[in-house]
Batch of 2 targets.
Target 1
Amino acid sequence: MTIKDIKEILGAKLILGEEWIDREVHTACGSDMMSDVLAFMKDQSVLLTGLCNLQVIRTAEMMDVVCIVFVRGKMPDAAMIQMAKEREIALISTGHRMFSACGMLYEKGLRGGASYR
Amino acid sequence: MNDKITIHYVVPADDFTRAGEASSSVKSKLKLMGVKPEIVRKVAIAMYEGEINMVIHAAGGTIDVTITPEDIAIILKDHGPGIADIDQAMQAGFSTAPDNIRDLGFGAGMGLPNMKKYTDELRIESKLGVGTTVKMKVNVV
């Protein structure tokens, strides 16, 4: 699956990352708690979250996340977009709620990257 | 990467938007040095958790990172309230973070367990009313 596929499956708006749209993503993680996200470690992941602050971008950076999907119509502010741009993290916003957004991507083959021991 | 490199960071107090700047800086440096991506990620996550803790609980502090060909050592030092019961703090899910921190996506009680998970060595020294020093090490080879 690519970032472009995610955007299309969710009927979402791409806020940042037109130039990275063909990047492959293999696993995803959905959470509003960044501490929980940090307990998972997997390459090439997508982060789905309803949280919308700078620490979401930082957490994504630490985890090598390539794409963040903001659910429930959340929109990142200018500072978040700038930080994501510097780190080449694509940003997508969808009106779907967390459960639905995760389900739609799962149905199309994206899987969870859980690896907590 | 033959020499020992040391970097000193000051983590500012009560500025949640800047929390993580030091970890971000270390992550890019290690990447540039050609350290293996999985090692870089382990260091970045463990240090970021520590840095967030400092801002949440201790009004900032200092971080010293030492990089050698064998390992990466991170020492986080603060003059915060200290940890009353370290064993309890190490338990997944235990947190003393206030609700406003939870609203920001942290305070799930996963910080210290994550730091332990992603490092090869973790030592915590803490004294109530004096502060906390966390020493972590990630092996490179």
Target 2
Amino acid sequence: MKSLAERAAAHRPPLAKAVVWSAWPIVAALGIAYLIQIALAPALSDFHGKLLVDIGIAIILGVSLNFVNGYAGQFSLGHAGFMAIGGYTAAALVFYGGLKLFGVPEEGGISGLHGGFLGPGELLLLAGCLVGGLVAALAGWVVGLPSLRLRGDYLAIVTLGFGEIVRVLLQQTDDVVTDPAKIEAAGPLELADHLGGGFGFSFTPDYVDPKNPFWVWLFVVVVLLAAYRLKMSSKGRALLAVRENEIAAEAMGIPTTRVKVNAFVVSAFFAGIGGALYAHELGNSLRPADLGFQKSIDLVIIVVLGGMGSISGVVVAAAGLTILPELFREFAEYRMIVYALALILMMILRPNGLFGIREIWELDVWKRLFHRRAR
Amino acid sequence: MTKFVAVCLQTLTLGSLYALIALGYTLVYGVLRFINFAHSDVVTIGAWLAFVFAGALGWAGTDSPFFAMPVILMLTMAACATIGFTIQRLAYRPLRHAPRLNVLITAIGVSLLLQNLGQLPWVFGTQPQSMPKLLSERALFYVADVKVPMVDLVVVGLAVVLLVALEVLVFHSKMGKAMRAVSYDERTAALMGINVDRVISMTFMIGSGLAAAGGMIYGLKYNQLSQTADALWVLLGLKAFVAAVVGGIGNVRGAVAGAFLIAFIEMFGAAYRSPQMRDVYVFAILIIVLLFKPGGLLGKAAVEKV
């Protein structure tokens, strides 16, 4: 009779295989993002290129919210708060840090870009995304730890309050420092209070533009892979169990509060990255008013329409809800009315969202089309 | 001293406004157990309808007859009660036994619908309007050098009258007893011969009527009506909702207590600390109260049963 540890070791894959299996998604993400960058983006007009980037950011934010709303079944109404935290952290790091490290760029003044594709500025953006994500994740942990003990409705209220507090606090910050000499002289803590207030942080260099969707789509592939792997892992199954029945899950030995807090932290991390990318997109200025309650609601709508817990469903919903408003720009005043009616009808007629909890390839339609009925 | 009295007066009027709106949230939560996000939009529509009625009846200033305000109030409350009934019938009733999240999202949908319908050019439009001053702003009397105008007196008086009426309705009438029974246990209430559908419709109508009164009070006190999708209305609704939660959602007296507590913190925080941070104080109180007393100050903590 072998011990448990020995039996577990027998099932463990060899090291080389484990490394390959862990690493290939990152390679795939880099490859896909690079392909989009060199093959797809140059072929698109600026309008369609911007749409491509917007869709990418919407997917990152939608899928990240899906960790909490879809997998864990908890209702968060403060996702824009995490987005704002990540966005502002990254913006401060990239704008002030870029000027401190590399000086004023020759083109474009203080808001100019430092170097081209994969240049020093873009690497700083990558660092900004990761730091922004980590700070947002920390905020998620601080908010989630006490509040995830509360029941569903109350969690929604606490997250809503959190989002509003973040927005108001950001509105209280001072104007952005635009004098390079002063930035050079000031310490990081001094600059942390100069985030633009109600007018917004409007000097962020636009690293993400229609011709440069690389970073957005890199993180899109990363978040999709993370979401899929989590869903298929034991940790993800624990989340789904909590969603289906919290008491039963607890009885099966799942530490429900810890599992929910983990989901919250992962969700906040990717929301922070989404916010960081949003902050550096051409045409967006980072304003607290745009990252309030309304934005949180928009993100919830993406998750709900796509299907709570369905990754592909959320991707479709994120893309659809980004494209549709552009198509119906002439009917702007009726657009939101149709949107609202669609939401209400959807909840009454198809309460689980477009795809429910299943992925697109798991739908019954395909079985009916391609398979003979099983005996 | 003068400042203190002035801030107290502000607290009273704002608290009355919050109380009227918070009651709508708490009543609906009591019977249906969901947050009616569309409630703040009924307030908005109430304020705008009061403006429209005042214009249609030709009462535009303080020289209008003394019965102008009550008449407009009645009309607005009746109209909003009808709107509340319609929303309940069309959007919420089909989802009575759906998961709570779905009802919540439907409420968000209704909220978006009302906001954007109100902005259409043939409804209220997108231009901000100023509410006619139906009540005099001249000082009636002075308390410690602070003038107390007619508006403030009527606002507080109206709120008190409506609150007492609601108290009588909920705790001393047959309908109120039925409402409390449905709130306690819907299925058993139905078995006891209570018409649950009627009770729920009634609750919505009462809540929407109070919301209309709140909207009109807002118009009379602050005069400026922004477009219906303005974030200002959402914030007003959110704060009233916070009041309901802090007091213990589902608890009628708690909502009133919570409303005055929130108004107190907001007004005194704004006057003596930082005026820009008033929203932060409100939401911070919400989070603190929920962390230490998850059922709200006067609410009971619900025990989850298997």
